[in-house]
């Protein structure tokens, strides 16, 4: 029931009247005139109560006469009486004072109304506004509030008038409750408050009724409070504790302490809730204070969970309500959950330390309620007000449970605690003749003292308590008589009380007793149980246990997890359990523990899963599989599944998971959220629009779905009986049906969760029992156990098993008696209580229970009050005598000072070590708490603390105490603001057991009323006065406190202080330096007289610097070692300028400005004094001119050579463009920002700058917007490019079940839901994403439109909204031509809304539109508006077929994940292994982020280009410095262009980059040749120099390097080669072979001298004698096969050498490919590919794309991009030429053409792999590794390439065997037929030998033998074992003419003149193969290969080791 007022039915007197009872509320606003109609007045009153309650009181006062008549009338109905009660309540609450309200109160107090109408209304309350056992909460609230306000406003009318309606209402409610009517908790609470007010007028009869909680047997009382106790008091069962006298019985003893302790935590909670929820006292002041109650409103239980102890619930607090203090909502705190309607009251405890930490703003609660009830009614539904109890509940809970479990017949020490007997028995477990080892009590003996005596160590090892001669001060000289007596009593009695006043050594004595008992355990033999030490606080326990560790390092166990001591961490029970259990437990026990733990974890996962599903039920839609059971119960499963119905059509529904939540039993967390479709997990489902025609049902989005799930009714059983087909239901009814099933599913899931939570708690109890047994194993091996009183009660069962016989309780006088009692077990035989009942007592939570019920009396104090024998320690060792005299005789009758405190030094700087400062400043009370503060005292003590610190005391020696926490906060704030945050400030209660050197006390209280609060407590005052060791100072209004105190204590204290002159209005301060100077401080401002802690006099001590100390007198730092002189420095410079710095700062050079003449220039300048004039930089402007003839802008003293001229000049850049820049920048490379404007191959003008396009050689990407239509029918949004990138728009692919949330270019996931295309005739049985299995239905639709005319559509299709009758003109508009036929049917296109005739649309969708070309891989378009048709069930198969083709193309473009990963790994391997790519390791990120094949191929191209540039850089290092800079600048420009290019390369860019690298290669070859000659000082002729300059000029033209320029360059390079040959640089291969063969030397006979000259050794080839080099005279040869030092063997002299370098060779032809890498090209080229090796950045495909042109066939005419004279395109291979021998296999040409792979010889073994070419081409895959995409088909490009070549013609010999390509590709075309060159299997043609008489060398290409290795692959360069290849035809790119092959018997043909060959020496001769991805054939000039000339460079010299070489003859040139 909510708190809102509800409309009520008309009562009998109104039931007969026309109109509703609320009709009167519509009466007009009351005016100034008086109303005379009583009914109208009540109507106005009712309307004002509802809408304008603030105007109600003036209206009542204005119409008091009419109201009096109405209220005096006898015929008032209950509704009218209720209206008057509402008006009375509102008037009283809005009234300002009682006088203003008197006329209205007089009307209400008329006997006719109060005793007739009001009583009649209460009597008929059962039938007024009642419904299903509920009385309207609004009626009850208003009635109770009205009576409560009348009682508080008119208490004098209670006895005569108001008591009757109150008694009647109370009795009526009690009667109705007994009959089953329900009343909220707040109504009952306020009714009891009202009844209590009425009963207050009859004090003799005002006994509250007993509540169910207070039964006669306290064992039946629940520990947790009940809701009734929150508004009913404790009742008569609460008895007082007995400070004096015995109890009647042990049962009465336990009953008293149980009830008192329980009431102690219930009463603060009850009073706090009462203060918050009670009715306000309108005339009673501010009402009762709320105390320390903490409320959190709008709290919800949102989730079920688990903790180690059991099931818990997550309570979520509202935002901003998280507890700010760390002491709030602690683990173990009690919380009360009150529902917002106050109908439910729950209790729970905060759970901490769970494995699942709660999120911020939430807390885990252990709620004491039935799990089923919580899950069904409250979880996620009910909003609560959570109240946190001020009392820490955990300490109460375990003690109360321990008291209930305690057997009255076995109460420990019942003889004393219950019967209060005074005769103490000896410990029963020790026996009558027990002896103790007292050797630890003797002080250490001096070295060498071995005297034996009565007190020797040997005699003290077995001492009986009866040995009186031993128990004497002579035996223990360091103990006093009282300590010796206390130890003797503690060892001889079973119940021991030791009182220790402050400073008497209670802790010391307790440690001595523990040591004695531990030492004596071996003597007793039979008693080996551990010793139990109990303390009240964790801090006290840690201190005591640390003392035990000093003499007992092992066997100590500390139980409890709140220890802050690092030393005790190793002794905790948790740590010892982890260390010892592996040794203590057996295999069976370990297995049992593991199985229980495993089952518990499994159950926890199941609960977590169920809770997650419950939490998400109203956030998503369940799948059909989850609701199968509910559908089956309603017999609708077939209708729902057959119809494929979704509660939200068009919004999607989840695919059923592979595992059902029901079948799995919700036992696993795998796929936890699989079954509830979340809106946030599927945003597309929430964002989709409603189905057509259903938009009125709700809006789109997640909120719409949640609203449909949470709001609305459910389908009833009656409605369900009429449902036949779910598909026919409206959307609203479908939601009603779904909510019915969802609630049934939720109930079943709730039942399952409740069962699992109960099972989890059972298993958690089993695990706790096993843990209990493990802990017992650990404790049984211990000797000392330490725990707090709460811990002792919590682990009481563990202690009962351990059975400790001896228990020592520290600070026993501060512990509640119930806490001490539950720390004891029946096995306890020896109890030692150590404490002081004169100090702090126990602190109950309720003050009334403490004072009136004596709950604050501890067991220690009660026993002393009952004359139980005890021992008091008499000598204090802490306080100086002046302080201890304050305690005697006011607190202790006898307390003597030990001799150690007599010589305590006085406090420095103060006249007295003890003093009380009197003041009269008033106190103040905190606005948000009950605490008090006093600003005067706080500021005074803060200043006094600063003064004491100035005296030399440390902050750790000071402590400020005060009784109130409000004052603690104020003093701490002042201390921090004054920089004294290290000074400790505590409340007196928190400083029990602590001490310090100086203590400052603030009494706080000072008021006129004489209220002193806590200061009345004698115990608290005793603690405050006894904490100081050396000095004690107190500030307070002692006179006011003594006058206001009801006891004589403060009066006696004040008399004592006055008698000893220790009190006064001011504190006297004495200067340590000037003892005669004294200062009296009365307030904070007086401390300004002693600012430095001394006096007002000046110090005047002469410092080391000679200055006097400027401070006031300061006792601290008397030697001024810490003083820093702040006076001005007295030092003068040479010109008598004074130093401006402080005295303590080091002097700096004088910086005073003076006039000086600069000697260099004669100018007069203002110069710093210390700086000489010749070192000053003159600041006059410079008048000199720079080298550029511009004036220097620097100063006169600065050198002009360092000046940068900033004059703006016009500069002509190398690109011929002009720019304006600073003069000094002319010599630096400038970036030309002129727009390129050249026309690109795409037809657009280039938008890059001249710098970006590298002076027009390398163009940037086109920046114009692309306008192509993509496969998905979207228009490309990217810039103009050859291959458009994948579409980045949102994917439009949707179905009735879901939608794709990817981008358009990505591959969609297929929908696996059943296809929803069905009608009355056909139904598809396949999944949604597959081709439908049903035909199109051509039957007419049987439905009717909203106009009642028949539908013009087809069966099973969406009905067209146009009617054949109503919209005849629109529907029959001629488009296809058949629209006007009478039987025409129409189809609605859902994508655009057009309605078309079905026959014409079928033809349109099934075929191509008439008159248009065929469209490939594109969605069909609407013939009217060209909107893509994507959603139409009739054409599902057409749409799905096109979508499947699009998916295939996407897959081929992107590549599979495995292909991409393999390609990435290959590129990364190459990047890390290729030495030429070391500087480009930063490309790893780009490679890792590649998402398609195209990206990988583009990256491969980039790496190839970069590797080429790296080789060029290495070549540049061999040139002169100027040439190196020139070449490196141009190389870096290309590298910069590559680094800026983040897109795929276009064909134009690839071609331009190849041309640019080719140009740089030619330029590098020329520079290297010239630099080589200049480096050897060789002469370069004028002709050669001119040719070289001409070639360099041609290569450095500011234009792209074209084929025409290359043609012009060829003859220049040939002439340069002739004039500047490279033959002298190294031996050619032919020379090496000829020399070796002529001398018949073997390998390893060649050596080098120290200068590098070659020589050889004959015979065995090993050195046997020494000689001298004929070239340089160096020692060569050696002795005994050992070379002379400096000589080296040249084993590579006969190795295959690299061909001689040629000027015509490009650097790319010499590049290598790293071993093990492979090309990323596709595995096979398409038919139209330019070569068997497609371009890296193009993805050709076999299918034409939209807007593509058909491939061109080769023809005899040159193409636009081909050079003159060529009949083939430069980027395409020439067509194959038939071999002159039809039967011979076709072999590749030995000269590779541009864009063609190198030829390869066939393997002699058919199954052996093909041998790769030594020079793989850039755009071809390398031979080392297979393609990363071996099985993938070729991916078609979405758009045609601008320069795509035509397909190759088929071979003219179809039956001839094809020679495999060096890179065999699937579907690759046959290789071209070679020209007239030797075949690999035939003897190659040979050129005439230059030596006619020499025998011809054998053929280097023998026929392959079975076991011989495969033959070498011919390449463009000659090899050692093969003849050089022949020259090509007249043009490298032209088709070679067919020539007959040489016959075996015919002489070899004469080879043409080979061109000079030169390989750059910058590259090693044995470099690895070239990288793939670049077309090397385009970069090679292919001028033909010459036969290498054999030239002898040196003649034979004398000496036995040198070869005499014959003169070489130069062949004749042609």
Mean pLDDT over the residues: 75
Q: What's the shape?
A: extended
Q: In which range does the helix fraction lie?
A: 25-40%
In this structure, how is the largest beta sheet organized? 7 strands, parallel
Give the strand order, joined by hyphens, for the main sheet.
11-14-10-15-16-9-17
Strand tally: 41
Sheet/helix structural class: alpha/beta
CA-based gyration radius: 54 Å
Provide the low-confidence segments as ranges. 1-36, 208-214, 285-291, 450-457, 642-700, 1409-1414, 1624-1644, 1693-1700, 1707-2014
How much of the polypeptide forms β-strand, as a percent range?
5-15%
Offer a few descriptive terms:
2014 residues, alpha/beta, 6-stranded antiparallel barrel, 49 helices, 41 strands, extended, disordered N terminus, disordered C terminus
3D structure, described in words:
The chain is an alpha/beta fold and 2014 residues long. The strands form 13 sheets. Strands 11-14-10-15-16-9-17 form a seven-stranded parallel sheet, with helices on both faces. A hairpin with a 6-residue loop joins strand 34 (1386-1388) and strand 35 (1395-1397). The protein is extended, with a radius of gyration of 54 Å. The N and C termini lie far apart (118 Å). The relative contact order is 0.04.
Short description:
With 2014 residues, the protein is α/β, with parallel strands linked by helices.
SSE topology sketch:
Elements: H1 12-15, H2 38-51, H3 56-62, H4 64-72, H5 78-94, H6 98-108, H7 111-123, E1 130-131, E2 134-135, H8 137-153, H9 158-178, H10 185-199, H11 250-277, E3 294-306, E4 311-316, E5 334-339, E6 345-350, E7 362-367, H12 371-378, E8 383-388, H13 393-405, H14 414-417, H15 481-492, E9 495-499, H16 506-519, H17 521-524, E10 531-535, H18 538-551, E11 556-558, H19 573-584, H20 587-616, E12 620-622, H21 628-633, H22 637-643, E13 676-678, H23 683-687, H24 702-710, H25 717-721, H26 731-780, E14 784-788, H27 789-794, H28 796-802, E15 806-809, H29 817-822, E16 830-835, H30 847-851, H31 859-865, E17 871-872, E18 875-876, H32 881-884, E19 896-897, E20 914-918, E21 924-925, E22 932-933, H33 935-950, E23 958-962, H34 965-977, E24 984-987, E25 996-1002, H35 1018-1025, E26 1028-1036, H36 1038-1044, H37 1049-1059, E27 1063-1064, E28 1067-1070, E29 1078-1081, E30 1153-1157, E31 1164-1168, E32 1208-1212, E33 1218-1222, H38 1368-1371, E34 1386-1388, E35 1395-1397, H39 1398-1406, H40 1436-1454, H41 1457-1473, H42 1484-1488, H43 1493-1516, H44 1521-1540, H45 1547-1575, ...
Parallel strand pairs: 9-16, 9-17, 10-14, 10-15, 11-14, 15-16, 18-19, 20-26, 20-27, 23-24, 23-25, 25-26
Antiparallel strand pairs: 1-2, 3-4, 3-8, 4-7, 5-6, 5-8, 6-7, 12-13, 21-22, 28-29, 30-31, 32-33, 34-35, 36-37, 36-41, 38-39, 39-40
């Amino acid at each position: 029931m909510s708190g809102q007022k509800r409309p009520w039915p008309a009562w009998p007197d109104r039931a007969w009247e026309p109109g509703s009872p609320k009709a009167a509320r519509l009466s007009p606003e009351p005016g100034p005139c008086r109303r005379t109609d009583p009914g109208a007045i009540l109507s106005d009153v009712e309307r004002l109560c509802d809408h304008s309650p603030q105007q109600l009181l003036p209206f009542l006062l204005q119409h008091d006469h009419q109201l009096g008549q109405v209220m005096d009338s006898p015929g008032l109905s209950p509704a009218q009486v209720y209206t008057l009660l509402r008006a009375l309540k509102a008037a009283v609450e809005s009234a300002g004072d009682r006088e203003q309200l008197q006329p209205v109160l007089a009307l209400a107090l008329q006997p006719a109304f109060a005793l007739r109408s009001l009583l009649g209304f209460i009597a008929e309350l059962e039938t007024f506004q009642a419904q299903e056992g509920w009385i309207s909460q609004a009626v009850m609230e208003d009635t109770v509030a009205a009576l409560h306000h009348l009682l508080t406003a008119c208490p004098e009318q209670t006895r005569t008038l108001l008591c009757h309606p109150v008694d009647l209402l109370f009795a009526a409610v009690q009667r109705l409750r007994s009959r089953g009517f329900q009343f909220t908790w707040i109504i009952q609470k306020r009714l009891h408050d009202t009844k209590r007010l009425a009963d207050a007028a009859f004090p003799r009869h005002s006994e509250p009724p007993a509540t169910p909680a207070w039964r006669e047997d306290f064992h039946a009382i629940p520990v947790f409070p009940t809701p009734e106790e929150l508004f009913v008091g404790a009742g008569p069962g609460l008895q007082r504790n007995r400070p004096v006298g015995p109890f009647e019985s042990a049962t009465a003893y336990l009953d008293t302490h149980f009830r008192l302790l329980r009431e102690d935590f219930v009463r603060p909670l009850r009073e706090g809730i009462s203060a918050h929820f009670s009715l306000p006292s309108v005339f009673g002041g501010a009402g009762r204070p709320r105390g320390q109650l903490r409320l959190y409103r709008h709290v919800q239980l949102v989730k079920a969970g688990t903790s180690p102890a059991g099931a818990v619930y997550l309570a979520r607090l509202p935002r901003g309500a998280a507890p700010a203090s760390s002491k709030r909502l602690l683990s173990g705190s009690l919380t009360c959950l009150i529902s917002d309607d106050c109908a439910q009251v729950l209790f729970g405890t905060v759970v901490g330390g769970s494995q699942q930490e709660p999120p911020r703003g939430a807390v885990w609660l252990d709620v004491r309620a039935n799990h089923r009830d919580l899950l069904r009614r409250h979880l996620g539904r009910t909003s609560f007000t959570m109240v946190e109890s001020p009392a820490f509940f955990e300490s109460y809970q375990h003690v109360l449970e321990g008291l209930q479990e305690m057997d009255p017949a076995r109460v420990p020490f019942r003889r004393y605690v219950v019967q209060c007997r005074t005769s103490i028995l000896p410990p029963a477990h020790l026996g009558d003749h027990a002896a103790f080892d007292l050797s630890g009590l003797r002080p250490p003996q001096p070295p060498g003292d071995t005297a034996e005596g009565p007190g020797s160590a040997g005699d003290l090892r077995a001492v009986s308590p009866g040995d009186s001669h031993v128990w004497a001060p002579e035996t223990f000289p360091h103990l006093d008589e009282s300590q010796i007596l206390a130890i003797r009593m503690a060892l001889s009695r079973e119940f021991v009380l030791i009182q220790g006043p402050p400073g008497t050594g209670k802790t010391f004595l307790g440690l001595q007793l523990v040591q004695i008992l531990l030492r004596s355990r071996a003597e007793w033999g039979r008693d080996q149980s551990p010793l139990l030490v109990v303390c009240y606080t964790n801090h006290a326990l840690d201190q005591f246990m640390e003392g035990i560790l000093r003499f007992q390092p092992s066997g100590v166990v500390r139980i409890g997890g709140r220890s802050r001591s690092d030393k005790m961490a190793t002794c905790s029970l948790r740590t010892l359990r982890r260390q010892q259990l592996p040794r203590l437990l057996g295999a069976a026990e370990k297995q049992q523990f593991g199985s229980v733990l495993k089952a518990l974890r499994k159950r926890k996962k199941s609960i977590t899963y169920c809770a997650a599903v419950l939490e998400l039920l109203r956030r998503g839609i369940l799948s059909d599989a989850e609701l199968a059971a509910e559908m089956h119960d309603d017999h609708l499963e077939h209708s729902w599944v057959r119809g494929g119905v979704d509660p939200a059509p068009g919004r999607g529904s989840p695919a059923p998971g592979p595992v059902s939540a029901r079948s799995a039993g919700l036992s696993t967390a795998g796929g936890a959220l699989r079954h509830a479709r979340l809106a946030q997990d599927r945003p597309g489902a929430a964002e989709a629009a409603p189905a057509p025609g259903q938009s009125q049902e709700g809006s789109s989005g997640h909120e719409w779905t949640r609203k449909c799930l949470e709001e609305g009714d459910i389908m009833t059983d009656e409605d369900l009986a009429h449902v036949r087909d779910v598909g026919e239901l409206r959307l609203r009814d479908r939601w009603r049906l779904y909510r019915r099933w969802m609630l049934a599913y939720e109930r079943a899931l709730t039942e399952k969760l409740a069962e699992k939570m109960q099972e989890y708690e059972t298993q958690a109890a089993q695990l706790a029992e096993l843990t209990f047994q493990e802990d017992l194993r650990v404790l049984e091996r211990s000797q000392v156990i330490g725990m707090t009183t709460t811990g002792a009660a919590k682990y009481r069962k563990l202690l009962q098993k351990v059975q400790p016989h001896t228990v020592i309780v520290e600070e026993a006088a501060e512990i509640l008696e119930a806490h001490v009692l539950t720390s004891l077990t029946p096995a306890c035989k020896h109890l030692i209580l150590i404490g002081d009942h004169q100090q702090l007592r126990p602190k109950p939570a309720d003050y009334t229970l403490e004072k009136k019920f004596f709950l604050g009396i501890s067991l220690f104090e009660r026993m002393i009050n009952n004359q139980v024998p005890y021992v008091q320690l008499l000598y204090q060792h802490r306080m100086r005598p002046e302080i201890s005299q304050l305690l005697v005789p006011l607190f202790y009758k006898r307390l003597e000072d030990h001799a150690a405190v007599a010589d305590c030094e006085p406090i420095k700087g103060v006249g007295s070590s003890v003093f009380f400062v009197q003041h009269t400043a008033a106190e103040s009370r905190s606005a948000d708490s009950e605490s008090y503060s006093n600003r005067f005292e706080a500021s005074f003590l803060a200043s006094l603390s600063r003064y004491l610190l100035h005296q030399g005391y440390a902050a750790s020696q000071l402590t400020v105490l005060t009784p109130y926490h409000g004052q603690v906060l104020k003093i701490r704030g002042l201390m921090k603001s004054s920089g004294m945050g290290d000074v400790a400030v505590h409340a007196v209660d928190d400083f029990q057991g602590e001490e310090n050197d100086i203590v400052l006390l603030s009494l706080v209280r000072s008021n006129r009323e004489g209220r002193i609060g806590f200061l009345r407590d004698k115990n608290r005052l005793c603690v405050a006065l006894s904490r100081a060791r050396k000095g004690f100072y107190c500030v307070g209004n002692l006179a006011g406190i003594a006058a206001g105190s009801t006891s004589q204590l403060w009066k006696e204290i004040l008399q004592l202080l006055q008698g000893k002159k220790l009190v006064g209005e001011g504190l006297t301060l004495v200067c340590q330096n000037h003892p005669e100077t004294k200062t009296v401080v009365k307030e904070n401002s007086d401390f300004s007289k002693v600012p430095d802690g001394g006096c007002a006099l000046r110090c005047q001590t002469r410092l080391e610097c000679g200055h006097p100390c400027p401070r006031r007198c300061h006792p601290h730092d008397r030697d001024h070692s810490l003083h820093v002189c702040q006076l001005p420095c007295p030092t003068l410079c040479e010109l008598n300028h004074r130093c401006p710095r402080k005295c303590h700062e080091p002097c700096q050079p004088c910086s005073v400005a003076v006039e000086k003449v600069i000697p260099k220039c004669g100018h007069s300048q203002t110069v710093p004094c210390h700086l000489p004039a010749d070192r000053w930089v003159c600041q006059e402007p410079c008048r000199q001119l720079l080298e550029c003839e511009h004036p220097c802008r620097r100063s006169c003293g600065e050198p002009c050579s360092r000046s940068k001229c900033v004059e703006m000049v016009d500069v002509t850049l190398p690109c011929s463009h002009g720019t304006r820049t600073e003069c000094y920048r002319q010599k630096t490379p400038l970036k030309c920002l002129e727009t390129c404007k050249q026309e690109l191959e795409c037809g657009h003008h280039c938008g890059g700058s001249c710098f970006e396009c590298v002076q027009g050689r390398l163009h940037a990407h086109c920046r114009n917007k692309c306008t192509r239509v993509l496969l998905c029918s979207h228009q490309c949004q990217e810039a103009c490019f050859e291959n458009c990138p994948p579409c980045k728009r949102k994917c439009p692919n949707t179905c009735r079940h879901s939608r794709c949330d990817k981008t358009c270019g990505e591959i969609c996931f297929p929908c696996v839901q059943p296809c929803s295309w069905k009608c009355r005739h056909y139904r598809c049985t396949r999944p949604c994403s597959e081709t439908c299995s049903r035909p199109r239905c051509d039957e007419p639709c049987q439905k009717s439109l909203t106009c009642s005319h028949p539908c013009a559509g087809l069966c099973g299709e969406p009905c067209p909204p146009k009617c054949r009758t109503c919209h005849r003109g629109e529907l029959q508009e001629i488009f296809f031509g058949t629209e006007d036929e009478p039987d025409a049917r129409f189809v609605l296109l859902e994508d655009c809304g057009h309605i078309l005739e079905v026959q014409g649309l079928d033809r349109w969708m099934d075929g191509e539109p008439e008159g248009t070309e065929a469209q490939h891989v594109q969605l069909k378009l609407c013939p009217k508006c060209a909107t893509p048709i994507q959603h139409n069930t009739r054409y599902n198969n057409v749409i799905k077929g096109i979508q499947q083709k699009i998916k295939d193309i996407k897959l081929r473009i992107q590549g599979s994940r495995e292909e991409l990963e393999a390609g990435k790994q290959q590129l990364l391997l190459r990047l890390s292994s290729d030495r030429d790519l070391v500087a480009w390791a930063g490309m790893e990120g780009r490679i890792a982020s590649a998402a398609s094949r195209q990206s990988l191929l583009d990256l491969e191209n980039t790496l190839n280009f970069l590797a080429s540039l790296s080789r060029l850089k290495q070549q540049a290092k061999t040139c002169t410095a100027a040439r190196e800079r020139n070449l490196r600048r141009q190389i870096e420009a290309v590298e910069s262009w590559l680094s800026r290019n983040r897109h795929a390369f276009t064909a134009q860019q690839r071609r331009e980059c190849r041309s640019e690298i080719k140009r740089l290669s030619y330029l590098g070859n020329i520079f290297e040749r010239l630099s080589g000659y200049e480096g050897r000082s060789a002469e370069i002729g004028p002709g050669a120099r001119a040719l070289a300059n001409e070639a360099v000029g041609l290569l450095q033209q500011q234009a792209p390097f074209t084929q025409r320029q290359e043609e012009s360059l060829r003859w220049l390079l040939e002439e340069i080669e002739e004039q500047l040959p490279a033959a002298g640089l190294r031996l050619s291969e032919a020379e090496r072979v000829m020399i070796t063969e002529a001398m018949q030397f073997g390998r390893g006979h060649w050596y080098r001298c120290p200068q590098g000259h070659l020589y050889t050794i004959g015979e065995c080839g090993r050195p046997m004698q020494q000689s001298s080099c004929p070239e340089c005279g160096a020692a060569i040869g050696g002795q005994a096969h050992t070379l002379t030092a400096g000589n080296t063997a040249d084993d590579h002299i006969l190795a295959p050498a690299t061909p001689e370098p040629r000027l015509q060779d490009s650097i790319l032809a010499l590049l290598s490919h790293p071993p093990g890498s492979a090309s990323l090209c596709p595995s096979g080229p398409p038919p139209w590919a330019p070569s068997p090796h497609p371009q890296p950045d193009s993805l050709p495909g076999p299918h034409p794309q939209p807007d593509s042109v058909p491939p061109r066939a080769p023809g005899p005419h040159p193409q636009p991009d081909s050079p003159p004279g060529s009949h083939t395109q430069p980027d395409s291979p020439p067509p194959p030429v038939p071999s002159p021998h039809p039967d011979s296999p076709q072999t590749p040409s030995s000269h590779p053409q541009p864009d063609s792979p190198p030829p390869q010889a066939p393997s002699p073994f058919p199954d052996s792999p093909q041998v790769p070419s030594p020079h793989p081409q850039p755009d071809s895959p390398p031979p080392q590794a297979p393609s990363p995409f071996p099985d993938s088909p070729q991916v078609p490009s979405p758009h045609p390439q601008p320069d795509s070549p035509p397909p190759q013609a088929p071979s003219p010999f179809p039956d001839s065997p094809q020679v495999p390509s060096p890179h065999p590709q699937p579907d690759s075309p046959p290789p071209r037929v070679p020209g007239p060159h030797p075949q690999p299997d035939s003897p190659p043609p040979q050129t005439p030998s230059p030596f006619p008489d020499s025998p011809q060398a054998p053929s280097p290409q023998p026929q392959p033998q079975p076991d011989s290795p495969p033959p070498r692959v011919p390449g463009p360069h000659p090899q050692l074992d093969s003849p050089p290849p022949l020259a090509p035809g007249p043009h490298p790119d032209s088709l070679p003419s067919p020539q007959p092959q040489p016959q075996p018997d015919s002489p070899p043909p004469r080879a043409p003149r080979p061109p000079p060959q030169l390989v750059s020496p910058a590259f090693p001769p044995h470099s690895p193969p070239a990288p793939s991805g670049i077309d090397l054939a385009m970069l090679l000039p292919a001028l033909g290969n010459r036969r290498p000339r054999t030239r002898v460079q040196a003649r034979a010299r004398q000496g036995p080791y040198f070869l005499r070489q014959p003169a070489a003859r130069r062949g004749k040139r042609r």
